[in-house]
Amino acid sequence: MTLAENANRPNYQQVVDQLYQTSDFDFVGIALQSAQPPHQITWQYVAGLVVRTGKPFWKNALRATSYSDALYTPIAASESLTAAAAIPILATPFRLVVGVLLVGYRSTQTVSEATVSRLSRYLATF
User: Fold this and answer.
1) What is the 3-state secondary structure (H, E, C) of 47-87?
2) The pLDDT of residue 72
3) Which of 34, 54, 43 is nearest to 96 (CA)?
């Protein structure tokens, strides 16, 4: 990545820090898609379904999902999340998915479409 490209890239660590400090989420992380083939996502700042579909995802009762469940997420399991929301990070001008914002709870709190909507608006400011 050149200096010019890096200067135009959002400060994802700032996004994570600000969300964590100003919300009640127990976990906030961002995974970015690699620019090199095979374009895997890596958790660089601490969902494959969100990257593939380009659509937000949220689920409560995550501990009830198993490895064979289509909604199983290894990061949610390793972080012991009970509820999580994942929002695609879109690059302009073609709105390609370049990463995923994942937030979650380890308690009895829940996420909803309103959570996704609020976080999508938040991402639009960066």
Assistant:
1) CHHHHHHCCCEEEECHHHCCCCCCCCCHHHHHCCCCEEEEE
2) 54
3) 54
CA 89 – CA 97 distance, rounded (Å): 6
CB 26 within 8 A of CB 106: yes
Whether the model pTM is above 0.85: no
Helix (H, G, I), strand (E, B) or coil at 30: strand
For 60-95, what is each residue's pLDDT tens digit? 877 766 544 545 567 777 888 899 999 998 887 777
d(CA 116, CA 103): 10
Kindly compute the dihedral angle of the four CA atoms of residues 62, 60, 105, 33, in this order, to the nearest 10 degrees: 70
Q: Report DSSP letters for 76-121, one per residue.
A: HHHTT-SEEEEEEEEETTTTEEEEEEEEEESSS----HHHHHHHHH
